[in-house]
Amino acid sequence: MTQLHDALHRTAVVEALDVLGNGPEERFDRITRMTQEAFGVPLTFLNLLHDGLATAQSAQGWHQGASAPAEQVMCSTTVLSDEPLVVPDVRLDPRFANMPAVIEQGIRFYAGAPLSMHDGTRVGTLCILDAAPREMSAADVGLLQDLAHWAERELGYSLERDRVRRVVDGLVPAPVDVPGYDLDTLSVPRDDTGDLADWRVAADGRLHVTVGSVAASGGAAALLAAAVRSAVIARTDVPMDTAIVGLEAQVAADLSAADTVGSLFHLRLDPASGHVVWGDAGHGLAVVVRADGGAAVLRSADLPIGLQPATTPRTPGSLELAPGDVVVLCTDGVLAGVGGLDALVELARTTRGGRALVDHVRPSTTGGTLVVLTRR
Which residues share a beta bridge with 47? Predict the structure, then answer.
């Protein structure tokens, strides 16, 4: 991209944040206040760069909401890089020596960290300034980056509302046709849900079905659920005994960063034989209901994604589906509407067909996923 294209894209993203002109917000002021206290500086800014301007979305020691031409602020240089910019004495740096902040306000020290959104767009900076030259240690720079990451998360919430809606809509997979079987599903997405679901026929003809959830708040849950689902899809052709382990390795860092875990139940059906292999990672909301009315919960001792020790192997299970047998998978949102897992099992026993079960559950479900797999 050209610098002009970058600037136009940055402006569009900043406007999409929908925070400009909103006045003081404690969520941002808390960050600049703590940054000022942490470094003992007179001036701290959370600046947004847009449309040729730098706007102080939050400031300590300066005017809240004030704007200046971008070329007159040091942050316009910081935002061009992924790395923090530290200038011990700005009067000795030709890029900044003639700026009004240096000549008119007597600024001698500047350090800033860029603020990036999920797509990599750098929208602004978190910066500190002082009237005296000073040095920063590597630990100081790391602290400034940590505080900047906090600011990124706060700014990102505004974008995530729209993004989450698109993600949640995309979490509902298309129907599939498996000869000899019925796959009936119910997905009622919500903006604040962490449910994930996927069903697809692999290249070898096996049916793969996954249901799970991520225990995080609001938009973060849906975005993390989408990441876990993507990791599931990426392992369609990976053997069952290593698929969940590989998935865990892929998403563990994201889950850890969000201080959360995920649960899932994943099964693979050979339609010709009715043989099913399955893995349960702390989900526990899967049941096989036999044609004669017997039922068993498909649950293992394996822990949720993000909690299983690397030294403890996952333990897949298996079963055989005979004609008339049904596998029911769901998330907590469905159980809340029907009165629990036992009640759902009883409905599966007494309701004729997966479609009828889904139709029975639908009116009481405000959000959740139900999958009913029946061998004809």
Answer: 56, 125
How far, CA to CA in Å, does 288 sit from each of 122, 164, 177?
50, 33, 20
Residue 131 to residues 6, 92, 279: CA-CA distances in angstroms? 32, 14, 61
SS3 153: helix
Instruction: For 41-92, write each residue's pLDDT tens digit.
Output: 999 999 999 988 999 999 999 887 789 999 999 999 999 999 999 999 999 9
Task: Identify any residues that bridge with 116 across adjacent strands, giving them in sequence order.
Answer: 122
Q: Distance between CA atoms of 100 and 221, rounded to whole angstroms? A: 45
Q: How far is CA 101 from the centre of its chain?
A: 39
One-letter amino acid for residue 217 of the chain: S
**99, amino acid identity:** M
**Single-letter code of the amino acid located at 143:** L
145-180 pLDDT tens trace: 999 998 988 887 655 555 544 444 555 677 889 999
d(CA 293, CA 311): 39
Rounded to whole angstroms, the Cα distance separating 59 from 16 reads 21
pLDDT in tens, 237-263: 888 878 888 888 888 777 877 778 888
Cross-sheet strand order for the sheet of 317-320: 195-201, 207-214, 262-270, 275-281, 317-320
Q: Residue 87 is encoded by which pair of tokens?
A: 């200038």
- Beta-bridge partners for 276: 269, 319
What six digits make up the tokens of 359? 């139709």
How far apart are alpha carbons 356 and 326 in whole angstroms?
Answer: 13
User: Do the beta carbons of residue 114 and residue 49 sit within 8 Å?
Assistant: no
SS3 296: strand
Whole-number Å distance between alpha carbons of 109 and 42: 11
